[in-house]
Amino acid sequence: MKWMNAYGLSLLLTGMAFLFSAAPIDASVIYTLEEVGSDVVLSYTGKINDADGLLFSADNASASGYISPTSGFAAGFELGSVTNYDGSFNGPDAIGSFNGFTDGSTHSGDYFGFDFGRFGDALLIESSYVFGQTMSGSTTFENNTIAGLGVDVGSGSYVWELGNTAGDTITLNIIPEPSSLALGLICFGVLLIHRGRPTGFSCS
């Protein structure tokens, strides 16, 4: 009977995994802000399924990636036209306290921007974008750090709900330079190995 219970639980978990994998979880755009060597890279991938519930506001000229912790962020580059869709998003009003803008040094891929906070909520998408198609892009901020950009490093991630018919979301994941985290894990492992043994090893 215990084997049957375990088997039944396995089937249940497998079925749940299938259901969740079949759900439209890809109906989102996921940004990653990551320290890479001496630079910071803002990259994204995903799609916006529709603009229903959002309001077309304007077409603008060319645009490129930037970060403003109290206003928004964008990645990629568009030489042509960018369309703004205004909305009322559910999520944080800031990702840091710095009110200024930092323009990226280099850019690649599709342009996609996201405004929130003090200047209102809006999506900034290439005018040629076809809703439902996957897009991706990146912007590099050379010789900088996440903290130097004014972004709150300790928050880990931010999520905004767009309020459109498709229920799309924007997620920003923050990944600091990994060396300090790796060192901490190494120290923790060594301390576990030497626990209860005389040692002069110290993580300080």
Overall description:
By secondary structure, the protein is of the alpha+beta class. The longest helix has 21 residues, at 2-22. Residues 6-27 and 190-194 have low confidence and may be disordered. The strands form 2 sheets. It has a 7-stranded antiparallel β-sheet with strand order 3-6-10-9-5-4-7, with no helix packed on it. The chain has a 6-stranded mixed β-sheet with strand order 8-11-2-1-13-12, with no helix packed on it. It contains 2 helices and 13 strands, in the order H-E-E-E-E-E-E-E-E-E-E-E-E-E-H. Helix content is 18%, strand content 38%.
The spatial strand order of the largest sheet comes to 3-6-10-9-5-4-7
- Radius of gyration (CA) equals 21 Å
Count all strands and give the number. 13
Distance between the termini: 53 Å
Number of helices: 2
Question: Structural class, please?
Answer: alpha+beta
Helical amount among residues, as a percent range? 10-25%
The best one-word shape is globular
Residue runs with pLDDT of under 50 for 5 or more positions: 6-27, 190-194
- The fraction of residues assigned to DSSP E strands is 35-45%
Largest sheet: 7 strands, antiparallel
The H-and-E topology, N to C, reads as: HEEEEEEEEEEEEEH
Q: What do the pLDDT scores average to?
A: 82
Task: Kindly summarize this structure in a few lines.
The protein is of the alpha+beta class. The chain contains 2 helices and 13 strands, in the order H-E-E-E-E-E-E-E-E-E-E-E-E-E-H.
Topology:
Layout: H1 2-22, E1 28-36, E2 39-46, E3 55-60, E4 63-68, E5 72-78, E6 82-87, E7 102-103, E8 106-109, E9 112-115, E10 121-126, E11 135-141, E12 157-161, E13 169-175, H2 178-193
Parallel strand pairs: 1-13
Antiparallel strand pairs: 1-2, 2-11, 3-6, 4-5, 4-7, 5-9, 6-10, 8-11, 9-10, 12-13
